Amino acid sequence: VKPTATAAAAREGGNLSDTNNGGTAASMPVTKKAANVPRSLLSRGDDDSPLNLCELLPPLHSIQQQDQHHQQQQQQQDTVETSAMTVVQPSSAPTSPSHRYSDSPPSPSPKSPGHKSMGGMSTVASDPNFLASSLRERNAAMLNNELMADVHFVVGQSPNTTTLPAHKYVLAVGSSVFYAMFYGGLKTEEDVLVPDVEPQAFMTLLRYLYCDEVVVEADTVLATLYSAKKYLVPHLAAQCVKFLEVSLTARNACLLLSQSRLFEEPELMTRCWEVIDAQAEMALQSDGFVDIDYPTLISVLSRETLNCREIVLFEAALNWAEAECERQGLENTPHNKRKVLGEALSLIRMPCMELTEFANGAAQSGLLSLQETTDLFLYFTAYNKPAVTYPTKHRAGLRKQICHRFQSCAYRSNQWRYRGRVDSINFMVDRRIFVVGFGLYGSSSGAADYNVRIELKKYGEVLATHNTKFFSDGSSTTFPVYFPHPVQVERDVYYTASAILDGAELSYFGQEGLSEVNLPSVSFMFHCSSESTNGTGVQGGQIPELIFYGPTTERERESESREA
Predict the structure, then answer these.
(1) pTM of structure
(2) I need a surface site. Which of 113, 306, 320, 321 has the fewest CB within 10 A?
(3) Cα dist. 161→154, 178, 194, 199, 200 in Å?
């Protein structure tokens, strides 16, 4: 076929067909009509020579160039129309919570490698919010972000308020309260005022709803618990309670008890009472005690299981009364202090004090009337005791429990000596307890006095130490030595109990030691200590007993109530 003939045929137009298919393909037009080719050019010759399509390329190239030119014109027209638009996708605001306190404008988002410009503005595809690889990351990018925000919260007390942007859908799927506010019967279209929640605590709530993260800090945990309770976010509330239980000490137990009553958290209340009962004097002398509410004060002063002296309770009530007078704007006088105490004063068991404690403390405080003071002095000193208006029965306190780690004891000549060496043993428990002291073996060669130093450590840190004495009568019984205050011991952590004895050289020692001791309410696990230089270990040696306050079983509580 000649080139000129082929080109002319391409300009004639027509449908492509295959003579071998009987014209079936004739109904299938080529994409462009300008490219129609006569059937004679596509059929084989008589000599069966192969079909030559080279001559078709020039017209096809021409058609392709026309298409490209048309597409370029269309793109230019779209660009002109787009540049006239006023609604474009802006770059997102900073997502860090710290930016909410800053007045400086947000820095522009970095452009991705595939960034495209639209009339000088960023497109949706270039915004980092939409480049996150997971749903969690995308939600995290929207936290505290004005992008697509459809609600704003004004949080905190005026004039120190903070405005936080949010997205109704995210909040509504995580909280039934937010659902009612935005889509239910409480539906509102205005900014939401939240004066009773701290901004940092509300930000913690938002972070949980957006990112499923729980970031709790000691300074804001109570405020966060309050916000979780207010907006019915139970998992966040549970995490706050768990944090409080772990960080619970005698210094904050009374204040946490007051808050747990407000939040109706019975499990946290139980943990608080465990600490207050066992370490009552430390709890009552803490700075937070004066900040508790009145119902909590009544509960503490009427508690039967407190392990403390009545003079400590009286002084704590006096400190609370002084703080309450200041809160109510009253002059700090004995009359006003007794007024704010009310019935709480009658719960202090004045007759159970020592005479010197009463004479130097309560009798000179000015809170008692002259008749009350006279009757109480007569109650302390006279054979015929007058009736008094204060309870006369001592508090029961907590019952001491003992863990015995040896099954037997023995003594042999030159077998167990001291000479200033350390006897130590590591132990761990599966529930929180309060170690009161140790039981120690004494002399095996007759009566003797011992000087002893006892210590309790956690990871090498000394939690408590005490130098004291005890008298051994020469028997194989153990002799208790106590710390000044019970020491809180957490579960699943190894502690080291140590003792250094100075006295009669020969003493009893334990044998057939147990690596695990299971009591009705708590289990102990023992392990050899590297600090032990006098031979004490799991199988034998000193420190045969650990004396502690701990949880009690239901049967034990019933027995104690019957005895009371």
Answers:
(1) 0.69
(2) 113
(3) 6, 20, 9, 8, 11
